[in-house]
Structures are given as C-alpha cells and as structure tokens.
Amino acid sequence: MANQYIDLDTLKYLLYDVHDLQNVLDQSRHNSYDRESIELFLNSVKEFSDREMFPFFREMDEQPAHFEDGEIIVHPQVNNYIKKGGEMGLVSALFDYEIGGMQLPGIVVTASAYIQEAANNHLPGYLGLTLGAAELIVHFGSKELNEIFVPKMLAGDWSGTMCLTEPQAGSSLSDIVTSAEPAEDGYNISGQKIFISGGDYKGAENVVHLLLARIKGAPAGTKGISLFVVPKYRLSANGDLIPNDVTTFADFQKMGQKGYCTTHLFFGHNDNCKGWLVGEPNQGLKYMFMMMNGARIAVGRGAAAISMAAYQASLSYARERPQGRSLTNTGKKDVSQEQTLIINHPDVKRMLLLQKVVAEGSLSLILLSSKYHDLAQTHSDPEERERYKNLLEVLTPIAKTYPSEMGLISVSNGLQVLGGYGFCSDFILQQYYRDIRIFSIYEGTTGIQSLDLLGRKITMNNGKGLQLLSAEIMNSIKAASEFEDLLPYAGKLKSTLTLAQEVVNFLMDFAKNGDYERFLSDATVFMEFFGNIVVGWLWLDIAVKAQKAMVLNDSKYSAVFYESKIHAMRFYFKYEIAKTKSLADVLMDKQVLTTSAEKQLFT
C-alpha cells in the first residue's frame, strides 16, 4: 500500500542523472552535502510519508475540515504532521545554519515535498505556507520580528499563512482595502481576507499571518500596499500569548483537498488587532512577489505529485483487472480463452502512457525549475547567476501551469482506465481528480500565468530569457543527434522550435503596433503551445541520458527502466508534440473573435 503513490527510482534518476544535482552541491552554500547524505534525507522523508501521511489520505477526504462553534476542526493528523514534520526539519530545511536551518538545496527540498504531496496532498501546504511566511520575515523583517517569530515557525510550533485575497479583490491586488493605522505598538489592522489556506484550526498554538494591507494615506493601487506580520496570538508585556483579535468567520467547503482547511478571516473585528510592518512601507507586493517564483513552482510540484500518485493507482489497477480478450490474427476474439488484463489493451496502454509522460515530464520540469532557482542564488559566477535567473523567469509560469492543466487531463485518463469504478468513491482516482482541480487556480490562475509568460517573460530583457532557453533546447537537440535512434526526434524538436519562433514573431508584431489586447488575447493558447514544446525538450533530454546509460552499460538502473524512458519520449513526440502544429495555426490565425466590443457576443 505504501509504495503505490510514487516512483522513487524515477525521482532519483531525474534528480541525480538528468538534472545533475552535483552541480548544485558543488556551490559553496551546499558543499557540506553529498549524494549519500541527500539519499538519507529523501529516504527518511519517504518513510515518514509512508507512516504519517499516506495512511490518512482518504480519511481526510471523508472527514473534511469544517467550521464548528467558532473554530475550524481539522483531522487529528494535521497537528501530528506539523509537529513531527517540524521536528524532522521539513520547515527549516531551506534556511541558513545560523538560524537553525539545514541549508539544503531548493531542488532537494522540492524533491522531499514532492514525496509528501504524492503521499497526501492535503497536508504539506500547512508546512509549506509556514516555510514561505518565515522566509519573508527572514529576508525582509527586522531583527526583533526574526527573534520573536522565526524560531517557533521553523520548529513547527507555530504555523504561517499568506493573506492576500479579499472579497472584492481576487487576483486584482490593487483593489485591496484592508487597512493599517500607525500606533505606538505597531499598527492597528482592520479588514478581512478570504480563501486563506491553513488560516486557522483547532489545536494550533499560534498562526502567523503575513498580510497585505494599505497604510492609511498610502498611494492607490499596488504602489500603496505594505506587508505585515499579524499573528493570531501576540505576546503580552510579560511574554504570554494573548488573543490578537483575528477572528475566523467561516470556512470554505471544497470539492477537493478537503483536509486542507481554507478560511475567511476578519482582522480587528473588536478594534484590537495589532500588526508589525515587514521591511519598508508600500513595498509589500514587491516583497511578496520576490517569493512568488518559489510559490508557483510549489503549486506545479503539488500537481505533478498528484499526477504521479494517480498514475501509480491506475497502473496498479490495470495490472490486476481482467476484462475482455485480445484480438486474434483473424481480428476476432476467442471467447474460449481466459480474459486478459486490461493493461494488455492498446487503448488502456495509450491512457497509461499519457499519464506517465505527463507525470514524469511535470516532475522533470519542476526539478529543473528548482535547480535554476538554486543556481540563480548560489552559483559562484555572477554571470551564471544572471543566466539562471533569466532562464527561471521564463520557466516559472510554465512550471506552475503545465502540471496543473495537463495533470488534470492525466488524472482524468487514469479515472477512465478504471471505467465505471473510476467514478465510484470506493476507488481513489476520483479523489485525485477532485484534489488536482484547484492547482490551475492557486497562486494566479492559468490565464494570469499565460499573460505573465507571453506579456512579460517572453519580452523581458529584450527576449533574453527566451534566447537562453532556446540555446538550452538546441544543446539537447545536438546531444540527441549523436544517437541514430534519437535523430528523428531531435529533428522534430528542432522544427518545432523554429515554429515557436515564427509564432512569437507573429504575435510580437501586434505588441510593436500597440495592439496589446490582440497580442495577449490568445495567451493561454500560447501557454499550451510553448509548455508542450518545453516538456518535449525535457523528454528528449531524459531519453538522451537513458541512451547514454545503455551504451555505457550503466547498471545503476535496469535496461527495462532506461528503455521505458525512451519509449515514453517516443510516445510524447507522437501524441503531444504533434499538437503544436494545430495550436500554431490557432495562434497565427488573423481572425479576432474574443476582443470585439462592437458585437453582442453572447445572447
């Protein structure tokens, strides 16, 4: 049971062999670690997930978090997980040794969180948000704020959240109205926040909210937003924890991730809520978005993990479920034969292979993004840091979106493998299908990510990021061209990359002429198009590494393992890369059907 949710060999293969973890470990910040110590850490996370997470996954769906008598009631394992995860260092893993952290590379922390999310995607958000909130305090907060809040958060004693969204201001953060008024002991906070994940729950010793608010008299729009630490309980003069007038008004009952509470909070309902400014006034959104690359990669990681868990579940079912018979050479079924397992049917294989290429391709994308994030901060060469930063900027919206959007399709195919049973609550696929749906909404919807990719990242620094990414793809094409079996796929990717440049040039003409609405009107289609190409590149790279291992008789993994990676690449190119042509046709079609203000489009 404990092994059904993840393919640990594939995770380690991608981490060590494909994405060269050693390159990150060679940087001075992380050179106290080696492969053996990383292995010990990841194996301990897997054992922890087997014991403390996966066994409670379905139970947390059946016993959802809910609002009762003014409190959010969560499954008992939530508090157990937070306490034990804190003791293991799952919150402190990224932080410096000097403040009690483990100073692990982000790519390793990403791998450890991926294992946990595949085991039970309802739990890791509690610690993940605590990590993110603590990171903001460490980077931008005063010494006093660091001393009061960070040690308790890194230990897992206190939780953390991010409080951005308000009823009248969803993704439009310029419309935030929560206010902060200067006082002798900080700021008086007043306002409400909705959709706050992990916002409050019974048994929490304290919840530390990192909250966006507008200091009275601040400029309008995003330029007037500041960041505050607003705990559920604040310290009194004698050091005791006392209520800080943060009230839970309600929770949101969701279609998925039911064990991960989502709250509606009111700050200052009784005019007694205190907050403390983080950094400088009116810089809150800037601070928050400096952490956004990591947050968006984390969302993609969660979707990738669910995709993998769903793939493992449907694969296990297909290997055990007999139904139908294989066709004979005459094209007819021999009903005298025993039923065959459904995994032997070509259409079931097609659905399983789609799950495989999405799940493993998404994981590769997430690990590479995390590697770029690490090297953009730690590489010894400043020019290399800048190069990785530009690569990361382009890759981040794709890393958030591809696993979320294609993950939903992947899990849907897994549900289909089970047939009617997939729609029944007796089997786990329907839960994965419900759980993954939120990931294309978290941390900026697919539409927002698509606008970011085409409108900002493709054009940023005169297209520097796109140029660098194209060079990386060409390096993989060159490496693949050295193997006769991979040469056709190298050629396909090269022609697809040329097509991408043609599409970008076509769209850029609208921007150059000031027609920005037309330029961005099909940004989501561009995201699908370009994300497909990026994951195709990653699959070709995976196949190159597998082909080299087979030529060198590398016995680290079996020949079957390596062959399965190359076969998956071939499947991706036949069924997925082929879609780029039709998407390019859509993007370069001169008809304008979604921007007209002259016609009544809906009746």
**N- and C-termini, Cα separation:** 52 Å
Pick out the low-confidence regions: none
Helix content: 40-55%
Shape: globular
Continuous helix count: 20
* CATH level 1 class label of the largest domain: Mainly Alpha
Rg estimate, integer Å: 25 Å
Beta-strand content bin: 5-15%
CATH structural architecture of the largest domain: Up-down Bundle
CATH topology assignment of the largest domain: Butyryl-CoA Dehydrogenase, subunit A, domain 3
Please identify the structural class as seen in this structure.
Answer: alpha+beta
Q: Give the overall pLDDT as a whole number.
A: 94
The largest β sheet comes out as: 5 strands, mixed, barrel
Q: How many structural units, i.e. domains?
A: 3
Spatial arrangement of strands, main beta sheet: 4-5-12-7-6
* Extended strand count: 12
Name the CATH homologous superfamily of the largest domain.
Butyryl-CoA Dehydrogenase, subunit A, domain 3
Topology:
Layout: H1 8-18, H2 21-25, H3 35-52, H4 57-62, E1 66-68, E2 71-73, H5 76-88, H6 106-119, H7 124-140, H8 143-154, E3 159-163, E4 179-183, E5 186-197, E6 207-215, E7 226-231, E8 233-235, E9 241-243, E10 246-251, E11 262-267, E12 274-277, H9 284-290, H10 292-318, H11 346-378, H12 382-417, H13 429-436, H14 446-457, H15 460-480, H16 487-512, H17 516-520, H18 523-551, H19 559-577, H20 579-587
Parallel strand pairs: 3-6, 4-6
Antiparallel strand pairs: 1-2, 4-5, 5-11, 5-12, 6-7, 7-12, 8-9, 10-11
Helix pairs in contact: 1-11, 3-6, 6-10, 6-11, 7-8, 10-11, 10-12, 10-13, 11-12, 11-18, 11-19, 12-13, 12-14, 12-15, 12-18, 14-18, 15-16, 15-18, 16-18, 16-20, 18-19, 18-20
